[in-house]
Amino acid sequence: MTEIMPFDEAIDEAMDHGRSRNVLLGNGFSIGAHQQFAYGNLYEQARNAQLPSKVDELFQEYGTTNFEAVLQRLDTGIWLAEHYGMSLVDEFSEMKDDYESTKEALIDSIASIHPAAITEFRESKLESARLFLDQFDTIFTTNYDLLVYWALMSGDEEMTFEDGFGRQVSGGENYLVFHGDKMDEDKGSLYFLHGALHLATVGGDVRKLAWSGAGVRIIEQVKAGLDNRQYPLVISEGSSEHKTERIQGSGYLYRAFLEFKGIEGDLFVYGHSLDDEDEHIRNAIAQNVELGVVYVGIHGDTESYSNRKLKERAFDLVSRRREVLTRRRVRRRRLRVRFFDSESAHVWDAV
Hints:
The chain is α/β, with parallel strands linked by helices. The protein has 13 helices and 12 strands. The chain folds into 2 domains: about 5-35 and about 120-155 and about 185-195 and about 235-345, Rossmann fold; about 40-115, no CATH class. The strands form 2 sheets. It has an 8-stranded parallel β-sheet with strand order 1-12-11-10-2-3-7-4, sandwiched between helices. The protein is globular and about 60 Å long. The relative contact order is 0.16.
């Protein structure tokens, strides 16, 4: 049986190491705050908004409500069609159109179910999440929502994390621009590895939506943009390979991923399944010889199918690291994997 530590023991152990503590947040972080972010709710929202019928049939056929799983299968189908010279038939064009429509449906669904304002959460709930996040030096998230921001902004204390956005753009008073080279070294760092609803690329620059002078909430600005088919900077590709291509095409996302690849110390994985769709993230962890221990959060029945697969993927990181060390002929620390009980972290309910 794999040892599952209480979160407090895991974080105390990491603190005793005296190294940097980093956290990778996945969808489980957002679901813990608001069940609307669960895959099933996102799927139902998209379905009600007229998800393409053949795509809906794919969800049914594969017995899933996970958008990334369906997008990955569509992605694979498109590649196979091109590989076998079937790209001239009408069905191939329909498949590509459905792939793009499904990506848009995912973004639309997240924006539609997203809480309108920070005031929809109890202050104690947000403070609880802030206390959890404050235990880390750097936060990396693959989520698209605003919940990390809202948590960090809660309470009367000064925000302890820097996201690299600041100076306002001339003529665009409700936008901030990314200036990662001027981040406050006395604060922790926050990066959105796959983009977010409040980020957009304008004229080659990545900008962040901010509360406008007219008092228009950020999520309302996002929805207004979607109504005009102006989509935010969000990586919703189905395969890890195509996610990587999108990341490399964005200055901000590439910088964020380089930061992730270069972290030192220990890494906590909370609410993230390390699935095949995020193979680029697994590779970054395995190949980073400065990373010592990965603490992986386990939610619910430790022997459930999903958790057994998660543990397999985590242990696979150890094997990959061993191969990296052998190939590079370097003597560095081997990667260790430890597991902690995600629920024991009480991220949204400690206060």
